[in-house]
Structure formats: structure tokens, C-alpha cells
């Protein structure tokens, strides 16, 4: 098949096809005597799978899966896909806990631990299972603001600041998209004392994760179709 025909079918550019090829995401392509690429139905299945999987799994993860399929490591590829889906389920559960916390008047694990006023970055990192470096990075790029201990200059976090961190944590592993950028900007700009606004953002995050679940399902369908084409699974 001609590159232009595949590009039109998938609504991609021919340069995108060449880029996937150059990075080893599809099997080697034969050339005609005149030097033109000769794509096969197998290549079409790879390109279609890449286009379907990348929005839900990310290009890096999709690329790894494509290379595993080329090496015929089906089980390794399946487990990578399964892990990404398990991570999405974990994020959904975290988002639901955030929403429950906000609907319960802001109560959370930090209050249960007796730290309802101020916590250090180490305490917040331990409570949220986030590296301290991630929290410092969010501060550096303006997603969160911190207070400082007047005596020693250490970062301190109150209930409102922790609320932002909990919302951001839900989106930390998310595939980059305009929706994720908009949600992070909404978290960064929200009034720290406005629980209703935080609740609305938590609801939007849950809706985003629901959408990602559907996008991943579509990606898995085309992943299975690719495995059939390359005869790694039976019809």
C-alpha cells in the first residue's frame, strides 16, 4: 500500500508514518525498485494500533508494546497493557477518595493523623505516597504555593494546600492531553479555601478518568486486532 493511502485512511501525515518507522514501532519496510516504501496489511495494523492506543496509554508505553509484539513477546506486551489499566483503576479510586473527602467537609488522613493545621513536606510526601521532589516541582512550576516556617524556612502545608496536592496526585501519571493541562491549571488557579470549587474539579477529574477508560478500551480492541494479524492469538 502507498504511504499516502494509509495516511489518508488514518488521518495522519506521511511524515508521522515515517517517524513511527524510524523509531522501530513497525516492522522494517521493503522498498520498490524505484525506492518507494511498500507497506503491507501488517504495517496498516501496526499504524492503526499505534493511533488507537497512544491517546489512552501514551506514546512511550505504546511504543514499548509495539516493539514487544515485533519480538513476539505477547505475554510481556499483555502485562504492560494490563499494568496501565490497573494504574487507571488506582487513579479512579484515588479520585473517588478525594471527592469523598471534600463532601465530608474536607476531612482526610491528615486530620486522622492529628495534623489538621500544618505538615512538613516530608509528612505530606509520606501521606500522599509522592516523592518530595514532585511536590517541590509542582511548587516551582506554580501549581501549588507553600508557606514557610518563620524559624527555619522549612516548607509547611495546611489543609487547603494539601487539598491541591491530593487533586494533582490523581493526574500525575495521566497521559498528556489538553484536558489534563486544563485540569491542572484549574487546580493551580482555584481558591484554596473554596471547597465547592475543589469538589467540582474532583468531579471533572473523575469524568476525565471515565473518558480515559473508554479510550483505553478502544486501544485494547485494536491491540487485539494487531495480535490477530501477526498471528500471536488465534481467531
From TrEMBL:
<feature type="domain" description="HTH merR-type">
    <location>
        <begin position="1"/>
        <end position="68"/>
    </location>
</feature>
<dbReference type="InterPro" id="IPR000551">
    <property type="entry name" value="MerR-type_HTH_dom"/>
</dbReference>
<keyword id="KW-0678">Repressor</keyword>
<keyword id="KW-0804">Transcription</keyword>
<keyword id="KW-0805">Transcription regulation</keyword>
<feature type="domain" description="HTH merR-type">
    <location>
        <begin position="118"/>
        <end position="172"/>
    </location>
</feature>
<protein>
    <submittedName>
        <fullName>Transcriptional regulator</fullName>
    </submittedName>
</protein>
<dbReference type="Pfam" id="PF00376">
    <property type="entry name" value="MerR"/>
</dbReference>
<dbReference type="InterPro" id="IPR009061">
    <property type="entry name" value="DNA-bd_dom_put_sf"/>
</dbReference>
<dbReference type="InterPro" id="IPR047057">
    <property type="entry name" value="MerR_fam"/>
</dbReference>
<keyword id="KW-0238">DNA-binding</keyword>
Amino acid at each position: 500500500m502507498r504511504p499516502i493511502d494509509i495516511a489518508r485512511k488514518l488521518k495522519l501525515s506521511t511524515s508521522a508514518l515515517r517517524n513511527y518507522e524510524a523509531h522501530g514501532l513497525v516492522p522494517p519496510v521493503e522498498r520498490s525498485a524505484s525506492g518507494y516504501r511498500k507497506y503491507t496489511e501488517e504495517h496498516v495494523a501496526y499504524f492503526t494500533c499505534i493511533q488507537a492506543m497512544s491517546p489512552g496509554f501514551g506514546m512511550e508505553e505504546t511504543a514499548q508494546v509495539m516493539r514487544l509484539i515485533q519480538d513476539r513477546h505477547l505475554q510481556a506486551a499483555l502485562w504492560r497493557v494490563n499494568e496501565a489499566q490497573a494504574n487507571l483503576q488506582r487513579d479512579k479510586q484515588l479520585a473517588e477518595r478525594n471527592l469523598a473527602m471534600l463532601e465530608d467537609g474536607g476531612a482526610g488522613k491528615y486530620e486522622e493523623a492529628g495534623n489538621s493545621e500544618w505538615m512538613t513536606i516530608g509528612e505530606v510526601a509520606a501521606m500522599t505516597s509522592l516523592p518530595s521532589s514532585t511536590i517541590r516541582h509542582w511548587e516551582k512550576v506554580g501549581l501549588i504555593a507553600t508557606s514557610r516556617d518563620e524559624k527555619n524556612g522549612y516548607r509547611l502545608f495546611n489543609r487547603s494546600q494539601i487539598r491541591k496536592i491530593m487533586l494533582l496526585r490523581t493526574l500525575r501519571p495521566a497521559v498528556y492531553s489538553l484536558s489534563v493541562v486544563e485540569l491542572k491549571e484549574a487546580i493551580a488557579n482555584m481558591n484554596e479555601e473554596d471547597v465547592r470549587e475543589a469538589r467540582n474539579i474532583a468531579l471533572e477529574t473523575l469524568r476525565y478518568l471515565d473518558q480515559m477508560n473508554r479510550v483505553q478500551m478502544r486501544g485494547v480492541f485494536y491491540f487485539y486486532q494487531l495480535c490477530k494479524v501477526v498471528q500471536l492469538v488465534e481467531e
